[in-house]
Design goal:
two-stranded antiparallel ribbon; mainly alpha; about 250 residues; binds zinc ion; globular
């Protein structure tokens, strides 16, 4: 696989069909035939037929320990990837783990009163911090745009929303979940540029500059005055002080 090319997790199922270290477990009343496996092109197709894969017991035991997983990771890197790709994948795997730790800490701290610097952020690389914040915000909002309600996830689990800071990171250094919202790309851009905001009653505000545009998408204007869509847990909704700071900044 050339560097930079994306793939689907469905593909290895057809490639590894005859490997001895796993077997596919069919959905109830379904049979998995070699022809069917060879046609697998997407995760949703695969899910129709397979519940999952059952790993060989020995391999499964190795995967229970951190050392075992590390050894497997190294063996895969050395046998399947170019030296250039190995270096990038090693770096990425460190970032993934750091991002996961960071999002867990943000989650734990979310029961605390609002504090600006809740974590010593210097301990984390910016990429890991971004990914950790993103993971927490996107899952807490269940992949739904807080302003327009859009929720689209591809079979490969790519989502239409991004994690937006209410008061930008560059200004606030604040990854508190209550300084975040999941927003689709258009709403994110509109929010960051002061075309949209949120009132103290959690209603969408649209700037008069949007209505002045002859080609602004109609959907943005219809959102004005509608309630935003927040997380299930009321304690994780955007904090009033951050929303107010955003409104002040853009005179909304
Ligand atoms: Zn949106």
């Amino acid at each position: 696989m050339p560097l930079g090319q994306t793939s689907s997790i469905a593909f290895p199922f057809s490639r590894l069909d005859r490997e001895p270290f796993w077997e596919l477990v069919p959905q109830p009343c379904k049979t998995i035939t070699p022809a069917l496996i060879n046609n697998t092109s997407s995760v949703s197709y695969l899910r129709k037929y397979a519940l999952g894969a059952r790993l060989d017991q020995g391999l499964s035991q190795v995967m229970q320990t951190e050392e075992g997983r590390e050894a497997l990771r190294e063996a895969l890197l050395l046998s399947c990837f170019s030296p250039e790709a190995q270096a990038q994948l090693r770096e990425q795997s460190v970032i993934n783990r750091e991002a996961y730790d960071y999002s867990r800490i943000l989650e734990e701290k979310s029961h605390l009163p609002l504090v600006k610097e809740i974590i010593d952020v210097d301990n984390y690389r910016p990429t890991a911090r971004d990914q950790g914040f993103r993971r927490l915000v996107v899952t807490t909002y269940d992949h739904r745009c807080a302003l327009c309600g859009v929720r689209i996830i591809t079979p490969e689990q790519y989502t239409a929303v991004e994690a937006a800071h209410i008061v930008p990171w560059s200004k606030s250094n604040n990854d508190d979940i209550r300084n975040g919202m999941a927003l689709c790309r258009l709403c994110h851009w509109a929010f960051d540029n002061g075309m949209m905001g949120v009132s103290d009653g959690y209603e969408v505000i649209t700037s008069r500059h949007i209505s002045a545009q002859p080609n602004a998408p109609g959907i943005l204007l219809t959102l004005s005055g509608r309630g935003i869509i927040g997380p299930k847990d009321n304690n994780l909704w955007p904090a009033q002080e951050y929303l107010a700071e955003h409104r002040r900044e853009f005179k909304l």
